[in-house]
Structure formats: structure tokens, C-alpha cells
Amino acid sequence: MTHSFDVQIAEKYGVNAAIIFQNIYYWCEHNRDNGRNEHDGLFWTYNSRKAFAELFPYLSERQIKTALDKLVEDGLIAVGCFNDDNRDRTLWYAVTKVGYCILQNRDLHMAEMSNANSENVRPLPDNKPQIENPDINESGARAQEPFSPPTVDEAQAYADSIGYTGFNAEAFVNHYAAKGWRVSGSPMMDWRAMVRVWRARDGQFTQARAAPANPALDYQQRDYNAEDWDAWFAESERRMAELYGGTG
User: Fold this and answer.
1) What is the pLDDT of residues 145-161, one digit of tens each?
2) Do both 109 and 64 map to the same domain?
3) According to a count of CB atoms within 10 Å of the terminal CB, is the N or C end of the chain lower?
4) pLDDT in tens, 89-110
């Protein structure tokens, strides 16, 4: 079996990420050609990290997770969960507009390099059927409307529509508004995809924090501020006074 990857993606995101991205891109395009797995205007493929590890035996599950997280954080792929069984937590992946743009720029760069050495540049063969669809742009990606940040109500409504319980829409909007609606330094392309990222991560966190066997370890971690510590010390001093008749 031969695995390939895009050199430009490997230079910027690492070889592991480039290999996995190429696999996701191939299957998303395969599903596009067959009209399968279309959700939210994108064509998706799905795989577990264990399945990826079997497909790429030279990568560990940890390396695969790191590569996938990098691709998601930098906006090359979107992550979702469209399984019929709600208990199935297998994640789905789709190439985003950013990912397609990177590939499109690569093809343009290759053509320019060839043109520098030859006056006759033969166009790349197009083996895909011609689809007359104004919603599909030249890169093969579905055309997207210009990005518009959501309101709190819009973000909450979308989370409710995909069954994302416990979503804090206000925290989501404030978090990315503070970042100028950028992800890893790049402009956000699809806020709905980021809501799905939050849902997927919350699901993984919930599984990782399943109730332990030892009841003594069954607690919820929280962040404490200065007021919390002052209250704790005051309560401790009160209890000391009750036990010993004073604080000394």
C-alpha cells in the first residue's frame, strides 16, 4: 500500500497531518462524486482514531490525535458527528474552504512552475463528471456565503438543532469575539463547524470524566478565584473557633 501527501501541507503542518489530510480529502471527494454523506453543505467521511491507526500502522493513536487536532484548529478540516446511533461517538471529517484553497493554490503554483519551463502547459485531466451547479466553485468546494458572526441566540439555536445540550452560547460568542473571530490566527470560515468542534470535545471530555469506581474520587473540578479562597478561609476560621473556643 502506498500513502502520499502534499508537500506544502507537510511543511506547514507536519508529515503526519499531511498524510491524514490526504486520506480525508480523498474520501470526501469520493463521497462527493457519489452524492453521499452531505451535511451542512459539505461532504464528509468518518473514522475512529483506532481505525486510522490500523490504516496507518506507522502512526500511534496519539500522533493521529495530534495531527487531527492540528488540522481542525487551523481550519483545514471540520469535525462533526452524524451517526444514526447517538451512542456512537465516531467522528466525521470534512475538508473546509481553507483546505480546498490550500490545494487550489498548490495546483496553481505547480502550473506556474511548469509554465516557467515550457510555453505549453497541458491542463490537468478532469476525471470528475461535469456538474452544472452554481453552488459549486472552481475548487470543487461548495460556495459559502461571506462569514458573519452569530448572535448568542443564533449560536444557541444551532446547538439545539444538533442536539448539543449544555452548550453555553454566550461563552462561545464571547470567546471568539475576543479573538476577532479567528482560529489559530486565521479568519474563521464556519462558526457552525466550531460549534460541532465544541460538541465533539465536550463528548470526549464527558467520556473521559465518567464516574470512577472509587466514590471518594467522584468529584467535579472547578476553578477558584480570590473570593472563593477568602470564603474558604473564613469558614475554616469559624470552624476552628467552634472547636477550640477561638482562633488563638
Assistant:
1) 678 999 999 999 999 99
2) yes
3) N
4) 899 999 998 888 887 765 444 4
Q: Is the pLDDT of residue 191 over 50?
A: yes
Quick: pLDDT tens for 31-60.
988 899 999 889 999 988 888 988 899 999
- Amino acid 51 reads A
The answer to whether residues 73 and 54 belong to one domain is yes
CA-CA-CA-CA torsion sign (133, 43, 166, 194) = negative
Strand partners, 94: 78
Provide CB contacts within 8 A for 31, sequence distance 6+.
Answer: 37, 38, 43, 44, 45
Dig out the grid coordinates for 235 from the structure.
469558614
Closest by CA position to 46, among listed 92, 80, 87: 92
Q: Strand, coil or helix: what is 143? A: coil
Residue in the structure block whose three cell numbers are 459539505:
42
Cell 505547480 -> residue: 110
Is 67 in contact with 20 (CB distance < 8 Å)?
yes
Domain that holds residue 80: 1-144
**Cβ atoms 45, 31 nearer than 8 A:** yes
pLDDT value at 114 more than 60: no
What is each CA distance from 2 to 19, 58, 114, 159, 170, in whole angstroms? 11, 13, 26, 40, 46
Choosing from 144, 159, 191, the residue where a domain stops is: 144
Measured distance CA(44)–CA(27) in Å, rounded: 8
